[in-house]
Structures are given as C-alpha cells and as structure tokens.
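tool_call predict_complex ligand=flavin-adenine dinucleotide
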Amino acid sequence: MVLTPSDVPTTTVCIIGAGIGGSSVAHFLRKYYPNSTPFTKILIFEKNPVVGGRMATVTIGGHTFEAGASILHPKNLHAASYAKLLNLKVKQYSSKSPSLGIWDGNKLVFNSVNIATSSSSCCNIPLIDKLGFLATHVTRLFLRYGVRSFLKTKNLVDYAVERFSKYYEGGESRPVFETVDDMLKWAGLYHLTTTTLKDELLDAGSSPLFIDELVNVITRVNYGQSVRMSALAGTISIAGSSAAGVWSIKGGNWKIAAGLIKESNAVLRLNEEIDGVARVGDCYELKSTKGKRYKCDVVVVATPLDELNIRFTPPISPIPERKLQHTYATFVWGLLNHEYFGLKCESEVPEVLGTVEDPDLPFSCIAIIKEHNEKEFTYKIFSRQPMEDTLLDRMFSVRKETVRKNWAAYPQYHAPEVFAPFILDGRHLYYVNAFENAASTMETSAVAAENIARLILSRYFKAK
Ligand SMILES: Cc1cc2nc3c(=O)[nH]c(=O)nc-3n(C[C@H](O)[C@H](O)[C@H](O)COP(=O)(O)OP(=O)(O)OC[C@H]3O[C@@H](n4cnc5c(N)ncnc54)[C@H](O)[C@@H]3O)c2cc1C
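tool_result ok
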C-alpha cells in the first residue's frame, strides 16, 4: 500500500539519542517515505552538546583522534552509502602491518618487533593490520598457532559477514522484524548468540593456544572482553580486525550522525536530556531535565537503557538485565618505558601491544596512533579500570600530556544472549539498542535503526 501525504495526519516522531542509531532512524524514515516532510516532524533529543554519541574524537598534542568507534569494515554498506550521500571524505587505513606483541603480565609471549617495522593506526587495531600482520608474519604465526586455526577462524568470519549482508537485501525479500531473535534467526546468525566464541572456535577446530592468545587479544581490543563472550559479537570483532580495506571518516565518524540529521531535516535539540516518557491517550509526552514537555506520536529510544534513568509511565515490562562493559580510553603523548615490559631497549617495544585474558592485567591494549619523532609518540590505551597516574608514571618514561575518557562502551556479552524487545510497550515506543546484544558497531546500529524505521512505517503508517 502506498500512502500519499494527504492520507495521514501530521505526525511527530521523537528520537532519544543523536548517535548513529538515532540519526539512522531519521534518515531511513525520510528515505522510505521521501515525501513525508510536510506531515512528519522528526525531533531528535541529545543530552550532550554535540551529536555522535560513541562516535567522538579527542584532541591531544594538537592532533585529533577517534576516542570511541574508529574503524568501519569494507562491507559496512550503510556506512559506505552515508559517506557517499553526505559527501564525507574517507580515510583508508594502510595495509602496512604494525609490529605486534602479546603481553602476559610478565613477558611478551609473542613479539614480532624484529621482523616488522611499521606504524599502527590505533588501539582498535584495524583488522587489516591485524590480519595484514598475520599475512606478513605468516611463518612465525603459523609455527606458533598452526595454519588450521587461521583457516577455521576465517571460515567462521566469512560465514558471519556473508549472513549479515542479508540485511541489505531489498524490502521485498526482507521482512520487517518485530524482535531481535527473529531478525537474527532469519539471517542465520541466531545460533552464534547461544554459544561462546571460544566454544565455537574450539568446535571448528582452532587450537586452544590460538584462541587464548591471539583471539583474546582481538576481543579484548574491540570489546574489552575475553573469548568467553558470545560467538556472534566475538566473530564480528574478529571481522573488524582482519579485513583488508578498513576505513573511517576523515575528521571524525561523528560527521555521519551530523550529516544524517541535517539531511533528514530533523529538528535537533542538543543539551536536552529526556528523563520521562509518559503515555497520554494515543500519544506520548516526553519530559526533559529542563522541565520541558514534548508531544510525540512515536518515540524511538536510540541509546542503551541500561545506565539511564528514564521514567516510563505506565512502566514498560522489565527488559532483560544487561551490564555495560566500561572501557577506559587513555591517550598519552610521550614514550613507553621498555623496562616496564621487561624489554632491553625502546626499539623492542611493539607498536601494538595486546594482552592475554588475566583480570590482574592493568590494560587490554596499547597502540601507537601517531609517531611524532623517534622519542615521542601518541598512544591509545584501552583498559577495564581507570589508568591511574602512578601506573602511567611506571609505564611511561616520558609523559607530556594525558587525556582520559570513560565509556559505557558496549554490552557485556554472554551466551546465550537474551534480547530486549524492539517494541517496548506493544504500541509505538521503539528501542534500537535492543540489537546491541548481538554486537555493538556503528553498522549494527544502522542496520537495527533501518529495521526500526521500517517497523514504524509498517506499524504506525501501515505503509508496508
Ligand atoms: C571505545 C569504543 C570503541 C569502539 N570501536 C568501534 C569501532 O572501531 N567500530 C565500530 O563500528 N564500532 C565501535 N564501537 C561501537 C560503536 O561506537 C557503537 O556501537 C555505536 O556508535 C552505537 O551507536 P548508538 O547510536 O546506538 O549509541 P550512542 O552512540 O551511544 O548514541 C546514543 C546517544 O544518546 C544520547 N543520550 C543518552 N541518553 C539520553 C537521554 N536520556 N536524552 C537524550 N539523549 C540521550 C547519548 O548522549 C548519545 O549521544 C566502539 C565503541 C567504543 C565505546
């Protein structure tokens, strides 16, 4: 059924959160209903003074770096189409491989520093670098971990990427999903949320050493979690670390959200934190911490509810309890102290230093993100705990500037995962970030947002 603007009354869609999820809902509502501007008003509320959410940059030593979401996969087709639509400049990551070390708290159990001398891009080791590294240093890695482990892991990653690409199929062959479970089952990905990455890789025939060292490094870098996380999120994290052609937006990935909001002609209310969503007749009333009230026909929550204090009236059914993994991103302009890592000289320190899973280790990874000169670098550290000054003073022989960011970063992944509903109240209150239990990436947010936009169109406007 095709609706024309005169068929439907003026409608206000309110979106809470101006990250890639919220801005994508606005984009897809307009895209699938291009003539809706006259009768659909889209209001986006953002508690921060800037858009982008977990796509944010930091500036240190006069240079700007991604502090949160950094890397996009070459098969992230929504992100790629956004970049094209919005005319955003793209940065392709070099295929040059950084040297990699794996630290167990006492020693480097693996160090490629003697055979690789290139610069790394960031703590989110792009998978091109991760896997490019593997290709370059194939003999050494194959000797330690065995060829079979790499092949089996690649098969799993290829399977997940191929299955995920079903979400780009046209609307005629792709249903609108009312639940995350249905969405994952339809693509053939659900079973990967019922098992851990470790078990999935062991079943496939990868070696325990490979999983406990190399794969743990990747999951700790990308999600601050171990290989005991659910297999789907774990596989997606490996995919992001092993593909050739990873990329980002020049100047910051947050530009995607800014561009989509503008392009979709949405009204953006910055510094406006929503703390109440009340049902009033057939509509909703949003209340902000400024005491302002907004009448909405449809409400979209485009942020994780887990650490929020939004009061729903009447209360929504309890959603499955989910803890967020906090990741502390610490940026240091200085020089790492090689002695801290038991190394003889500075030149033995690898450009990317990952860690095995050990709760006592103070960080998950350290990577050089900029080389200023031989004695001065900018490093990005990810850790599960704050990096205290006393620790940093031991780890660094020179520390000129330090910038810290505490992220409520992504869900703590478990198998089996239990998903919150996309539709929170059985009416027109929607939740994009229910999908984050599958995996948390810019693209998965966009894919979930596209489904929410289709749900709104089919359920509210009945425009299937
Ligand atoms: C350290 C880190 C590294 C990452 N690396 C990558 C990567 O390399 N590649 C990748 O694809 N993904 C990466 N991710 C994941 C990615 O950032 C997220 O999956 C994605 O950005 C989530 O987008 P979102 O719009 O769903 O949520 P968010 O980006 O969190 O947006 C939600 C927005 O809602 C706002 N908000 C919250 N509550 C309210 C309220 N009550 N009222 C109004 N506004 C509110 C928030 O301020 C925020 O702006 C990383 C994440 C982190 C933290």
